[in-house]
Amino acid sequence: MSTDYLKRILSAKVYDVAVKTPLEKAELLSERIGNTVLIKREDTQPVYSFKLRGAYNKMAHLSPAALAKGVITASAGNHAQGVALSAQRLGCRAVIVMPTTTPPVKIDAVRRLGAEIVLHGESYSDAFDKAQEIQAKRHLTFVHPFDDPDVIAGQGTIAMEILQQHTGPIDAVFVAIGGGGLIAGVSSYIKALRPEIKVIGVQAADSDAMVRSIQAGKRIRLSDVGLFSDGTAVKQVGVETFRLAKEYVDDYVVVNTDEICAAIKDVFQDSRRVLEPAGALAIAGAKKYVAQHHLKKQTLVAIACGANMNFNRLGFVSERAEVGEAREALFAVTLPEERGSFRALCKQLGARHITEFNYRVSDTNTAHVFVGVQVQGVTEIVKLAASLKKNGFPTVDLSQDEFAKTHLRHMVGGRSGLAKDELLYRFEFPERPGALSRFLDAMHPEWNISLFHYRNHGADYGQTLVGIQIPTGHKKSFKAFLDVLGYPNWNETQNPAYRLFL
Question: What does the domain layout of the chain look like in residue ranges?
Answer without folding.
Answer: 2-45+149-319, 51-142, 326-400, 422-501
